[in-house]
Here is the input.
Amino acid sequence: QAQLVESGGGLVQPGGSLRLSCVGSGFIFSTYVMRWYRQAPGKERELVASIDSLGGITSYPDSVNGRFTISRENSKNTVSLQMNSLKPADTAVYYCAGSRTWGGRNDYWGQGTQVTVSS
Here is the structure.
């Protein structure tokens, strides 16, 4: 019943931009910490962005800091990831996930959307 569905992935050239969206249903979206992860072939899953329930606190690792921006619109049960200045190293399947606390486990995961950065 609870569900997260990502969209917006695709093929983009280096230096380009993409905006990913994730829509939640079946749970109280506005009370959840939301996160974006990515996983590239041969690499461990990497947390790339987090946002608290009200959107007042965000967090990014050095690998994407300054290029990626997470945001949410609770009235639409949506969390987004704006990705700018994309690099081939950003190529991965991107997943959204939700947690009841900032440091807690994820209760819900999306199915993933492929992002490919290539010339």
The longest strand covers residues 18-25. The two ends are 40 Å apart (CA to CA).
